[in-house]
Write the structure tokens for this entry.
Amino acid sequence: MLVVLGALPFFLYVAVFLLLPIAVLAVEAFRATDPVTFEETWSTASVAAITEGPYRRAYVGSLQLSVITAVLGAVLGLALAVAILRARRGRLLRRLVLTASGVLANFGGIPLAFAFIATIGTSGVVTALLTDTLGLGLGGFSLYSMAGLALVYLYFLIPLMVLTIIPALEALRPQWREASDNLGASGWQYWRHVGGPVLAPPVVGATMLLFASAFAAYATADALVGSTVPLVTLQIANALSGDVVVGSENRGKALALGMVVLIGLVMVFYAWVQRRTQRWLA
Amino acid sequence: MTALAESVAGAGGVAPETPVRRGRRGSGAWRYAVLAVLGLYFLVPIAASVWFTIRERDGVSLETYAEIPGAEGFTEAFTRSLAIAGLTVVIALVLMVPTVVLVNLRLPRLRTTVELLTLMPLVLPPIALVVGVRSVLAWAPDYFFGTPLAEAFFALQEPALPWILVLVYVVLALPFVYRALDAGVRGADLRTLTEAARNLGASWPRVLVSVVLPVLRTSVLNASFLTLALVMGEYTIAVILGFETFPTWIVRISGSQSQLSVAVSVLSLVVTWVLLLMISALDRRRGTKETS
């Protein structure tokens, strides 16, 4: 019995610093402050407000950007991971790529935004090269747009995919490939009947992680575009800094709660997919 | 099923060598194309950033990098971030080392719950967490004003050393710390070692300090470094709560000193990467020593 007490600090800490803030969010999103008397009441006004107008656009924008970058990042990251694992004498390459991925995937944020501004921003090096030296221009591309954000997001999503999928790829036994080769299967048949089904659950899981990461990204977007692009994270920051308007704080809470609910739904869907694939594999 | 039967039937007559080789060579070209294109994508921004920071009207100079230590606000922001990172590492380890060890050795029933809770910060948007934290902090002036609890809340938000950032960063670091430590505990045969120590009469705290920590040295190092890097790069929570740390300082100066902000960014990425490379090399050396 005493042993359980040893795990108590962990549960207390998580309850206070992780679960409590989320619970408070869920309650206070449904509170409203009267602009005249400053009295607090229960109200669904904030939650109703975030489903329309600019807030709805922000959710749609965030979802679009995250889905597109997550799928692209997953495909490219998977290709990169396979290429690294198969490279001959690739140990050094592998170590370099894995550690670089660790840095970019988890700790990039602000530095990445500035690296891209220096590269392809208004006075960037590549921008100057393309427009002044080669006279080509950027072909309508702007770093300070959805497409620009997607380009920067992939810079941390592809490494995240590499990091999360490499253990799954390493778990594919070479003997399976040899067995299917010996049985006369083509590369396509191997991936269709052996490699694919084994890899599907981890790939779906990693794609979900990429989605969550892109959906939650704030630092890069804030440093790059300010609030010119409709994204939920930027709208939340706006609502919190706008002290002038009474009730904007509550709208920020409602927007944040919306993000938590959406991520929760994605996770439920993910758990459902995992259970289905496990049953199917068994 | 029929396809399988066909290939089994055909296997006797056909020499397997040729089709296998052709397939392998085709995928090889595809592999180099992927490496080339993505390599370009990842190297160009870094190279361009370096060029951006060293080009001058009359050639090349490293002046921007020399300016970093003396830049206005850099020292305060950087040391503050380092202090927050150090405190976060200590609290995260004190909290997680006993938990991971207990869960692995004595409380396997709790494993799923602990795993789930530590993975939550990985998918939970930090901005949502910080909005919640802000709401809780707002209770101090709203509900507890004049009580010791309110004083404690205000003390947590001291701009010189914001403890609230430390406490929230511990939560953000949980996934990294838990996974690094868990891998270490599973890799070493910790159960036998702790049982031996217990049989020889060591108390649990003593087992933790003299058996568990030495065994987990590289995992602890790994977890500490990941936490350090996480804190040094964290922007969302610091900026929403209104504290100046290293990343928020970069953003603040970027408007007036764009070369400096890019130089600091590149430098922080490269330094983090080199440190991580060194730790991974250390990891391997220890790993090979133990197996030999």
